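name: query_chain
kind: protein
chains: 1
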Amino acid sequence: MQTNPRATRKEWTALAVLMLPLLLVSMDVSVLYFAVPEINADLRPSGTQQLWIFDIYAFVLAGLLMTMGSLGDRIGRRKLLMFGAAAFGTASLVAAYADSAETLIAARAVLGIGGATLMPSTLALVRTLFRDPAQRAKAIGMWQGVMVAGIALGSVLCGVLVAHFWWGSVFLVNLPAMVLLLVLAPVLIPESKDPKPGRFDLLSVPLSMAAVLPVVWGLKEMPVEGVRVSYVASVAVGLVFAALFVHRQRTARSPMISPDLFRGHGRTFGSAVSLNLISSLAMMGSAYFTTQYLQSVLGNSAMEAALWALLPSVLIGAAAPVATALVQRGMNRAHVVATGFVLSAAGFGLLALTGTDSLWLVLAGAGVLACGAVIIGSQLTDLALGAAPAEKAGTASSLLETGQEFGGAMGMALLGSIGNAVYQSRIPDAAPAEAHETLGGAVAVAQQLPAHAADALLTASRTAFTDGMHVAALTGMVVLLAAAALASATLRRVRVREESPEAAEAPETPDAERALA
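structure:
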């Protein structure tokens, strides 16, 4: 029996190069957290413009992931990667020296376009670079860890740069990495694409964006502003377009998303995407509470909170390699994924035990939860990419990442709304109106009150917030335990493709197939 070709030093070096854009794209989600005062003083954006400066990047990124993943399969993933690097670098330069809020918003939108090309391209290229299952699993574990670390590092890096330079410096750090990628990618990374992609379905592009953007926007606004008719209507409109998008994929002669991904072996792919969505739901739902807890309950500054939030990453780094080693030594992957869900559920359990002065317990809960999420993400990503045909690697990667965006938005909407409902029910009736809305509002009001009244309001609001976090954490724990049972049942006997000898000889179309341990 012919074995799959093993990666050499060249492929591992190429992986290191691919980690650069992944790290920066994930960092850009949170890189502006500490730059707001400086941007406001320099550009004087309106309230609406300030929101768009933050949100346009994530919205464009989420809306274009499926389009760019499918496009990469057609024109070449390395080619799309280099286009994305050029766009990301150029937009970073424009953003750094933006002289108006409109210019900064436009640059952030182009950054989102670049990010939407870079993220699925990097994961798809990992799929084609590493055809040996064991090596690919290790590479995907590293990919997952870098993506999670980037989100945590973004806010800290922003704080350090803004403290020593001007706000535009947070964008300039992207330039050296993008230049290095443009220089090294043609040397280290072979081109790969679908040899028979069919015509690109242009109608699917606006349909996919109309399906994703209204849902993501509505879900992200609900935990902050409450469940309003406009947000529910936005989600409903998105779901209507999602149904139209699915219909288009089933009936079009050359669809953007091939239905074959979800048939036969693709049932494994569908299960992996769905379970990964649930894990993202838990991860982002918990982050909604832990970030507020560190700042508004414990009273840390934004910079202090970001530095504390880095501490759990010490545990995260070991999670994916340990999970990969267990699978490669014969442990059923279904049991490893189920264990990851149980571990994340235990993290929620720790959060449910917190008081209003439980720094280490919150950090421990966040760390345990994140470790479980990384275990789940690394194994399900490897499983999904192994189940998908190699010629559809870009499309498969984009669906995984779009699912993560949906899961994150759903987590914030579900758990955030539950926590806010409990908060509003527990806050004393005598408290000012602003304090009834959010903990942040209560903290702002307290700054205007005499010391005794401020202390009483802060104590009541922080207790109410912690109570809301407890209920949300218990809800998340139940969801994750149910997901653990689902993973154990659905993944136990799944099979994915084993790579054929012909595919092993053709680097552009390695049709990897393998049996799940």
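note: Residues 496-517 have pLDDT under 50 and may be disordered.
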